[in-house]
Amino acid sequence: MMRIGVLVSSRDGTPTALMERVRDLGFPTCEVVCWDADWLNDEVSDELKIACRASRVEITSIWTGLPGKSVWDIIDGPTTIGLVPPHTRELRMRVLKRSSDFARGLGVANISTHVGFIPESPSNPLYAGVIKALTDIAAHCETNGQGFLLETGQETPFTLLRTLEDVGADNLGVSFDGANLLAYGTGNPVDALDMIGAYVRVVHAKDAEYPTSGRSFGAEKPLGQGQVNYPALIAKLEALGYEGPLTIEREISGQQWVEDVKAGRIFLEGILASL
Ligand code: MG
C-alpha cells in the first residue's frame, strides 16, 4: 500500500515545527530536504526524533543537498551539480556520509541526492569517477543499514540503469521523480519505470512540462496540472509491487504551497482509490 507524504525543507522551521506541519497537513510520512550540512548535528537529531514520535510522522529519506556552487540549468548544471564535477567531489562525499550517519541516528531508512548529470558515455573519464564515488558512499550507507538513492532526471533512465549496474550495490536505489525526467527532457516517466522500476525506493509526486527550448528546462507545475501521466505511473508502480511513499513535492513556498500540497493529496487519493 502506497502512502502519501510530503517533502519539507530543514530551512522551513525547527525540527518540531516541521513535523507538526506534516502532521497538521495529515501526512503519515515525509522527506526532509537539507541544504545545510551544519543542520546534520546531534541536537537536531534529538529534537527530530522526539518530534517524529510525538507527531507520528515517519521520515522516509533525508534528501541531502550538497555544498558548493550548483547551477540548476542545462548550461552550467553538468559542470556544477552533484558528484560529477571532480573539484567538489570529496567535499560532497563527506557531506553525504555525514547525512548517512545523521539518518542512522534517526532510524531513517534512506538518504538521497542529485548525483548530477552522469555522463551518457561510459567511456567519458568523469563516469569512472562517479562510479567510484557512488561505490564508496553506498558502502558507507550499507554499514549504517540504509539505502542510498539517486534522484532521477539529470541523466537518461538508460544511463541511470547502467550506473546502478556498474556500482552493483544492493542498497543503491532510485528516488523516482517523474517530473524531473520530463522537465529535463531525459525521459518519459511511465516508460522509465520499464528500465529502472525495480530500483525505485521512494517516489516524488511532482509535476512539470516538457522543455520547449533546447536551452531551458520545462516548467514545474502543481500536481495534476503538468504532463506526467499519474494514473498510468501509479498503476505501473502498483504492478511493480511498489509499496513505498508517494511524496508530494512542490517547489514554491507560502500559502500557495499549502494549497497545492492539499490539492495534490486529493489528486493522488483519487488515483489510489481507483486502482
Ligand atoms: Mg524531487
> Strand order, biggest sheet?
1-2-3-4-5-6-7-10
The helicity comes to 40-55%
Ligands (ions, cofactors included):
magnesium ion
Total DSSP E strands:
10
Order of helices and strands: EHEHEHHEHEHEHHEEEHEH
Main beta-sheet annotation: 8 strands, parallel, barrel
Structural class, by secondary structure, is: alpha/beta
What count of helical segments does DSSP give?
Answer: 10
Task: Please describe what this structure looks like.
Helix 4 (about 90-105) runs parallel beside helix 5 (about 125-145). The chain has helices at about 15-25, 40-55, 75-80, 90-105, 125-145, 155-165, 180-185, 190-195, 230-240, 255-275; strands at about 5-10, 30-35, 60-65, 110-115, 145-150, 170-175, 200-205, 205-210, 220, 245-250. The mean pLDDT is about 100. The chain is of the alpha/beta class and about 280 residues long. The protein has a single domain (about 5-275), classed as Alpha-Beta Barrel (TIM Barrel). It has an eight-stranded parallel beta barrel, surrounded by four helices. The radius of gyration is 17 Å and the shape is globular.
Describe the secondary-structure layout.
Layout: E1 3-9, H1 15-24, E2 29-34, H2 42-55, E3 58-64, H3 77-80, H4 89-106, E4 110-113, H5 125-143, E5 147-151, H6 157-167, E6 172-177, H7 178-183, H8 189-196, E7 200-205, E8 207-208, E9 220-221, H9 230-239, E10 245-248, H10 255-273
Parallel strand pairs: 1-2, 1-10, 2-3, 3-4, 4-5, 5-6, 6-7, 7-10
Antiparallel strand pairs: 8-9
Helix pairs in contact: 1-2, 2-4, 4-5, 6-8
This protein binds magnesium ion.
